[in-house]
Amino acid sequence: MKLKTILAAALLAAGMSVSAQTVIKFSHVVAADTPKGKASVFFAQKAAELTKGKVKVEVYANSALYKDKEEMEALQIGSVQMLAPSLAKFGPLGVKEFEAFDLPFIFDDTADLHKVTQGPVGAALLAKLEPRGIKGLAYWDNGFKSFSANTPLKAVADYKGKKFRIQSSKVLEEEIRSVGGIAQVMAFSEVYQALQTGVVDGTENPISNFYTQKMHEVQKHLSLTNHGYLGYAVIVNKKFWDALPADVRGQLEQAMNEATVYANKIAQEENDLSLDGVKKSGKTTVYVPTKEERMALKKAMAPVHTKMADRVGKETLQQIYQATGFDPSTL
Ligand code: LMR
Fold this sequence. Notes:
Helices cover 44% and strands 17% of the residues. By secondary structure, the protein is α/β, with parallel strands linked by helices. A six-stranded mixed β-sheet has the order 7-6-8-5-9-11, with helices on both faces. (2S)-2-hydroxybutanedioic acid binds at residues 29-30, 86, 142, 167, 188, 205, 209.
């Protein structure tokens, strides 16, 4: 018998418990070098520090463990304990209200967004996950999305007839339809190849995702449209979370709070760095739409708000409009 086993047996015989380390598998689909990738590693370090090693968070980046759809299923059955899916990916789970975050031009800036994610509306949305066996712990920022394709995207007419990869959100499907495009839902891990082989013509994402997945190698044009937001909800398997000793759960909550501050602090910087990277690569032409072009895009996409009001819930929508002071009649 090994010394450790003998020791454990002796402790057990003495009626003392042998405390095993708790492992949290944290799976996500983006590169390590992104706001979410870095924040998940930060959380893992903080969790180890604050629980004094009682909890080990193993981070699996880049869909190494699960792809988009599979990771949600894996969380519910407890094969992973923690995820941070984009807010656009909760519809298939039956919590369609999160798709309100996908509405075009709904947030002017990050300050506007935080009025929702850091306020009662954000908390109420996370609470809707609980009947699905999921506990929402925090919102992490990424940023505003831009469109890319192999042809320039300036006027609304430039989007017509093009096939764009989107996340699994009906609001995004309607957004693409509003500009005459064809929406194709696809897992994030498959986007690069789909762009390379021409299965789709273009896509939308914050620049940090665009650059770290090397989409600039297979997209000639990037238009900085900032037409919609992409961010995350950090979620855990509720049964697992509730079963943790209260002190450990408290320490993990503290680690999550610190990781959230960190995530939101670096998100813009990471996107700025990625934009520099795209420009330096010389492979993609970066275009800044004129005020008029952006306004035309906003006008074309405006009907998405009314068309999708029932889907995201009129009440949720009103609460978001109220929190941000957004006036839909200005669309
Ligand atoms: C996407 O699928 O485009 C994004 O949700 C990926 C991510 O997690 O940022």
